[in-house]
Amino acid sequence: MATRKPCIGVLTGGGDCPGLNAVIRAVVKSATRLGYDCVGFLRGYEGLVDPVSYMPLDRQNTSEILLRGGTILGSTNKGRFTALVGHGERVRIDPDLLAQAGDTLRRLRVSGLICVGGDGSLAIAQQLFEHGLPVVGVPKTIDNDLGATAFTFGFDSAVATATDALDRLHTTAASHERVMVLEVMGRHAGWIALHAGIAGGGDVILVPEIPWTFEAVCAHVTAREAEGRRSTLIVVAEGAALPDGGLVHEATADAQRQVKLGGIGQRVAAELGARLDREVRAVVLGHLQRGGTPTPFDRLLATQFGAHAVGLVHDGRFGEMVRYRPPHIEGVPIATAIHELSVVDPASSAVRAARALGVSFGDGVAATETAARGSAARG
Ligand code: F6P
Predict the structure, then answer these.
(1) Structural domain span for residue 99
(2) Does the reported pTM lie above 0.90?
(3) pLDDT digits over 160-207, tens only?
(4) Do 141 and 181 fall within a single domain?
């Protein structure tokens, strides 16, 4: 693309989530006002290397994408850059790919590349930066497991979808006097399960951070039935390990991709059904929670991230990532940000509030005991 104006590039990497298009729109609108041209690389980092694929971005082709789910640039969590990196793990990216990416940016006169992604994609961004490329990061993931930022966009939308699913499951579970299990995403952290579980009135919440047992879950269902509650809703995060420590996942022969989690909901349903001699059904929410229109909160956060990322490029603050540290959006080195995993604190006020209402985390801790602990901690 021949241009005399300086140019900002943007790409979206890893799994998609609601709000990616809001970032792209914010980047283009704010960059244009500062006098930049914009270009979007397609299919994540793949667009930077042979065959290079990109599209010029302007006010016209990014209008009306604020509320559209997914990403107009496409994304991938596979490909040549995928190196099973993140949260401290590092696998070196092929130097030839890094050199190709640099050539592409120079040829298109891209003076700043905004990489929108989760832990893996940001770890790739860091390697590009270490190779001398002018990179700025924007964190995204529905899992909300990046410790450097209070929230990632996509999370609020995923929680809204999971809460809606629980609202719907309530009525059918009550009508049939069933135990129902909803499996939600959450690879390393149980944020979606916890927030949707509370907002959607779940009775049992199983997360990776709190070890649980089938005995405790069964005891909770039985206790509810003794109180006359004929239906029970259980929310389980895909990354909640079984009591023996094992994760439930699909078998995959694809060494390039991370383990495909999924199936814990069905395992919980089968085990409870057998132990309780009750009808237990499982629902896997899956990618429904990654699609669709972003919530107003996610649009707001994504828009601020996009505009702030352009500011970082404009100020030459490469190697930094935007983050939300309420009430501010600010920059933080990507190198430190990618090492911080955010997980649910079992002693947090959200967990304590849930327990105080009688929600079980499958660990047999009684609500009264928890409430007492809370008051003791408060002194
Ligand atoms: O990282 C976000 C996430 O939604 C995880 O919760 C989930 O394990 C993963 O993506 C699934 O990604 P995909 O199905 O695209 O491989």
Answers:
(1) 7-153+294-337
(2) yes
(3) 999 999 999 999 999 999 999 999 999 999 999 999 999 999 999 999
(4) no
CATH number, domain at 370?
Answer: 3.40.50.460
Q: Hey, which residues are catalytic here?
A: 143
User: Which atom of ligand 1 is the closest one to the Cα of 289?
Assistant: 4
Closest-lying ligand 1 atom to the alpha carbon of residue 16? 15
**Angle (nearest 5°) at CA 294 between 292 and 299:** 155
> Which residue has the least CA distance to atom 15 on ligand 1?
15
- Ligand 1 centroid, distance to 19 Cα (angstroms): 16
Distance in Å, CA 118 to ligand 1 centroid: 10
The enclosing H or E element of 122 equals helix 119-130
Residue 344 has a CB neighbour count (10 Å cut-off) of 24
The residue ranges of DSSP E strands in the chain, in sequence order, are 7-12, 37-41, 54-57, 110-117, 135-139, 179-184, 204-206, 232-237, 280-284, 320-325, 328-333
d(CA 43, CA 182): 31
